[in-house]
Design goal:
The protein folds into 2 domains: 30-81 and 214-319, no CATH class; 93-197, no CATH class. 44% of the residues are buried. The protein has helices at residues 7-17, 25-36, 64-73, 80-91, 112-125, 130-141, 168-180, 188-198, 215-223, 229-246, 253-266, 271-279, 305-317, and strands at 46-48, 57-58, 110-111, 153-154, 293-294, 301-303. The chain is mainly alpha-helical and 319 residues long. The protein is built from 13 helices and 6 strands.
């Protein structure tokens, strides 16, 4: 029996639930993301000592998860209110167009991974001044090692001084920003390094990886570059070869989503893995948590159900 103490919102929620018994997986997923959203902190990742996340804690407030989700679901059925709030949240966090992983910028220096992703999202949405984006991109493109490959931190400082770490995934995000602004010719060594890394996807985790855990994550971030016809013409066959080498390599929902999204971008039917991903959904509309990356050399894993759910929705709702 309904209680008047629930208030109008609670009563309407319970009434609407009566019509959700046959709700499709996509609608359930978006509804989960709506429930998980925090208007002040947007979406936040969790930390665990084990990749199964059976024991976890919240990490300090960060912006990367929200940026990933907005990038994935910018043109989706995700609530426009949520999209607007994430855009506002991200727009408040930059230092002249450069971004750090954490809201508290004293915890880590700005880096090319977060800057490449967040700045590209804000540029596509038209909510950051062009001159700010171009100035920040110049700093990213000039942040290179002796071989001309873009390294992670902007610039290294503190304990990272002199450690010019490179990693394929941050390079992919930096290169995406360069393509978006028509400056990819300034990142040729980075592009060559990235494609060379991708060609190793049929083997075990490349030694070049530092933060990320599976070749599929590199495959996904490189596949974003297929948005650009110039990149697609040169490298679609390399991405396809890497994908075909990885299909069937695991049944982890996040990795399934990486591969299905890549297949969608290549216009390849990956029906078996799409169906496996659909079957992995939890009853509450989420997909099971698994780590998206780890904290450098330490065995501390980072992930959340909201991240995996966003990747699953992109895979299933964007064919």
């Amino acid at each position: 029996m309904l209680s008047l103490r629930e208030g109008e919102a609670g009563i309407l929620e319970r009434l609407s639930a009566l019509s959700r018994t046959d709700e499709n997986p996509i609608d359930k997923g978006y509804r989960y993301l709506g429930r998980a959203f925090d208007v002040d902190r947007c979406y936040q990742a969790t930390l665990s000592r084990t990749p199964d996340f059976k024991s976890r804690i919240e990490m300090p407030d960060e912006i990367f998860s929200s940026a990933v989700i907005l990038d994935l679901l910018m043109n989706s059925r995700l609530s426009s209110r949520i999209k607007h709030r994430i855009t506002e949240f991200l727009g408040e966090r930059h230092e002249h167009g450069l971004f750090s992983y954490f809201v508290d910028t004293s915890l880590l220096p700005c880096d090319v991974d977060v800057t490449g992703l967040v700045l590209s999202v804000l540029v596509k949405l038209g909510v950051i001044p062009t001159e700010t984006a171009l100035s920040a991109a110049s700093k990213v493109l000039q942040n290179v090692n002796d071989a001309g490959i873009i390294h992670v931190y902007l610039p290294p400082r503190g304990e990272r001084e002199g450690r010019h770490r490179i990693d394929p995934v941050p390079c992919a995000n930096a290169l995406y920003l360069a393509y978006l602004l028509g400056r990819e010719s300034e990142a040729q060594p980075t592009e060559e390094y990235l494609i060379s890394s991708l060609r190793t996807q049929e083997v075990a985790r490349p030694t070049a990886y530092y933060y990320y855990l599976t070749p599929d994550v590199c495959l996904y971030w490189v596949s974003r570059l297929l948005d650009f016809e110039r990149f697609r013409q040169k490298y679609a066959h390399v991405v396809e070869e890497a994908l075909r080498a990885r299909v069937g390599g695991s049944d982890v929902p996040l990795e399934l989503a990486y591969r299905v999204i890549t297949a969608n971008r290549l216009r390849i039917d990956n029906a078996s893995e799409r169906e496996a991903l659909r079957r992995a959904q939890n009853s509450d509309g989420s997909w099971p948590n698994s780590p998206m990356y780890k904290l450098g050399r330490s065995d501390v894993y980072v992930g959340s159900e909201t991240l995996v759910t966003a990747f699953a929705l992109k895979a299933l709702d964007d064919q």
